[in-house]
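I have been asked to look over a protein record a colleague put together. Alongside the sequence sits a line of tokens, each denoting a local backbone shape. I have pasted the whole thing underneath without changing anything:
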Amino acid sequence: MSGKNLLKGYELLGIAAVGAILILSVLISGCVDSGGKLVKEGDNIKINITENNITKTIFIENISAQGMTYPFEKDLIGTKVGEKKNINYEEMVSVKLSQEPKANTEYSFRGQTIKIFNVNDTDFQMGQHPLTGETLKFHVTIKNISNQKKSAVECLAKYNVTPDTVVFYHTDWCPHCQKMKPWVQNLTDSGYKFFSVEAEKEPDKVKIVAECASNVINSGGGIPQFGCVANGQSHSGEFMSIDDMKNFADECSKSAAELTNKNKTANIVENGVFVEVAYIGKLTNGTKFDNGTVKFTVGSGQMIKGFDKGVIGMKTGESKDMVIPPEEGYGLPKAVPKLIPQEIDVGAFKTTFNNEEPVKGKEYINLNSLPWPAKVIDIKVISHNYTIEVLDAGNLSYSCLEGYGIDKGAVVFYHTDWCPHCQKMKPWVQNLTDSGYKFFSVEAEKEPDKVKIVAECASNVINSGGGIPQFGCVANGQSHSGEFMSIDDMKNFADECNKSA
């Protein structure tokens, strides 16, 4: 072997030795730490979660050993990025509750007194008034009688409005009103009598309505409204067809004629008159429970049935005694099942009962939801077997929607099948989606899984308890609720959302 070749051999040996040292150092380093990041408490993490061969990517913000978002969070702390873990746990998903009132107890709930009678293992007897089940004895005296219909008719006559006239109360911003307004005009031209009042533009007419027709038109109520003072009938807040308007007007005209022909005087109590009655109320054992003076329209349902019937036929100044059985007073006790039939979602349970965990056999109280305790009688549990792979950890930024495979620039369209606006806009949303616009369509009552995604990821722009339809963009925080949206408006909304994303 020549010196030259010997040198080359030493060079090769040296290179091999250096290489071995490098390999060894890498191996030693690998034994100590592979270099993978560890998940720490407070990290934002991105994971793949697989159950029943279905994998989805989710993002967990501020991971906590207390499992603030997912119960398995504590099992991921200390896991390396890239590592997979099998995690088994049981999830409480819903509870069944029973009502637990005490027998012979009165409860106050939302301004109403509820009386509990007997309670057994399956149900309880309940009345919605302290006098439920009682036979009532009244001594009554008629103090005054006035005929409201006649008074209202006489009031309208001062303004040259005849009693057979239907009051049509409307606004210029109400879609139903705009459709019905020309119909009312056509019927008026055909001989029907209407007194048309545009609430925000005709203050003088509004004053006439307030003075003469307040028994049939509520200026603070729904729009449109139709009212007839001759018979006390009204129709409020809903659409009325032309035929319905004709029938309403015909009934008003008929009632006006009857009112005129009878030439009623207000000295005998009958249905429809306004009376002032002094009374003393006692139980059958002689205990007085009430006394005073009451004013009401007879037959309007303002009073208990027996009292309403009992004063009919009486004259001003006349007195009499009445005995009213429970059926015509405050009713008989009704049996109510103790078991609440619907299962309550655990999230809803915690919201209702101050974020407490449900425990079988324990009683809980929330006087805003139920006047007596509720007891957990069963808890539905689902067993999960997850394979979780940690994809990344640290100070990450990630869209919650993306965790469910939904583009972060997608517009959430929250709707129902009973909403007329929704039904009109639903195919438009589909057409826009087919054209490349990004929408996440959620039918509130039929797609519970999607509703959960909305609650988790889009509650800042979609209010599940608010108006329908709703459009929301998580990327820019914009929302549109409870009103119709044109196709062009939808396009603009989607464009802005995509731009923000």
